[in-house]
Structure to design on (131 residues):
C-alpha cells in the first residue's frame, strides 16, 4: 500500500527503475577449445583438457550515477586431463574496474573496463614415470 502523494518508481513488470546494482553467482560447463582441448598426445601444443566446470563466485556491479559505477568478478575454471590420472588444469581470476552504462527503455548496455589478477596451473598429483 502506498501513501497518498508518493511516486511509484516501478515499471510495468514491477521492477524498480531506481535499481543501481546486481549480484550474480553462476556455474556451468567449460568446453576446452583449440589446442587446449586437443586430445592428440603426439602434438606438443595439445592441452589434453576434458570438459570441465566454470563458476563465478561473485559477479557484481553498482552504479553511482546514471552512467558510471564499479564492477567486480571472481571466476574459476577446472578441467581434468586426458591420459594422466590425478591431473587438473585450473585457472581463476579476480577483476575489478569501471562500469559505463547506457540505459534504454528495455535494456541497459554496459561497458566494463576491468583489470586484475589471474592464476593458471597444471596440477599433477599422481605422476608415474615409465622406465
Amino acid at each position: 500500500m502506498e501513501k497518498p502523494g508518493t511516486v511509484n518508481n516501478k515499471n510495468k513488470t514491477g521492477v524498480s527503475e531506481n535499481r543501481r546494482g546486481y549480484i550474480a553467482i553462476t556455474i556451468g560447463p567449460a568446453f576446452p577449445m583449440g589446442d587446449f582441448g586437443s586430445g592428440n598426445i603426439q602434438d606438443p601444443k595439445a592441452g589434453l583438457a576434458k570438459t570441465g566446470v566454470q563458476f563465478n563466485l561473485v559477479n557484481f556491479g553498482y552504479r553511482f550515477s546514471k552512467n558510471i559505477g564499479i564492477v567486480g568478478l571472481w571466476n574459476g575454471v577446472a578441467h581434468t586431463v586426458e591420459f594422466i590420472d590425478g591431473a587438473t588444469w585450473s585457472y581463476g581470476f579476480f577483476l575489478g574496474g569501471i562500469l559505463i552504462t547506457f540505459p534504454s527503455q528495455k535494456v541497459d548496455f554496459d561497458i566494463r573496463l576491468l583489470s586484475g589478477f589471474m592464476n593458471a596451473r597444471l596440477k599433477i598429483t599422481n605422476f608415474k614415470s615409465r622406465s
